[in-house]
Amino acid sequence: MIEYKEWRHVFKLDPDKNINDEDLERICESGTDAVIVGGTLRVSFDNTIDLLARIRRFSVPCILEVSNVEAVVPGFDFYFVPLVLNAGNEYATLHHHTEGLKQYGSLVKWSEVAVEGYIIFNPQSEVAKLTGAKIPKDVEDVKALARLADQMLKLPIVYIEYSGAYGDPSWVQSVRSVIEQAHLFYGGGIKDGSQAAEMAKWADTVIVGNIIYEDIEQALKTVHSVKSLT
Ligand code: 1GP
Questions:
Q1: Which domain covers residue 110, as residue numbers?
Q2: pLDDT digits over 19-28, tens only?
Q3: Ligand 1 pocket test: which of 12, 118, 126, 158 has the largest number of ligand atoms within 8 Å of its C-beta?
Q4: Residue 14 in marked binding region
Q5: Do the Cβ atoms of 205 and 10 come closer than 8 Å?
Q6: What's the whole-model pTM score?
Q7: Is the distance from the beta carbon of residue 15 to the nearest atom of ligand 1 less than 6 Å?
């Protein structure tokens, strides 16, 4: 069983992006709590299984965030299934989840799966475009979505997704203030240790993605700055 509720810091690697062996080793051996494999575009079975095989040389827990049914690969330690709460197109109907269950429903080990209640904030992000996300306009929108995930749907995880843009810490604080049981992930635009630490004040776990590919040294510094918080 993966104890994701104890994680403070996670790296997210995108199967569609290139990372050399040395950088991958530094990420996996950085002291981060886990590595999530996930992306929005061009995530396939082949590029996902390739990345899993490379990460498996290290002992870090490795989790698949399922982006599409074709890219479901067995052999990960755990699976996160995003459910976009502010989707505005067919993603709001859970059509893709139902199609996935038609193919894999009888095979899934449910003790290895958790659903993430995604709230998408960055309108420029690929995931916002893909899901036609209705971006929260004010703090009341934000709190309502957090309560939808936490209290109405009782999802185990709320994921504040700013992918590609650094978010507003006061909105993360607002989500924190209404959550009663869910574990809170924050991801988006973290470029250095101080930003990671700022979001870690309110989020249970901060997720660091793009900066891995842009500035590996800064990416690595986020681990210590989050882990050294009391
Ligand atoms: C993306 O939340 C993660 O799904 C991390 O975002 O890539 O902007 O760090 P960044």
A1: 4-227
A2: 999 999 999 9
A3: 12
A4: yes
A5: yes
A6: 0.97
A7: no
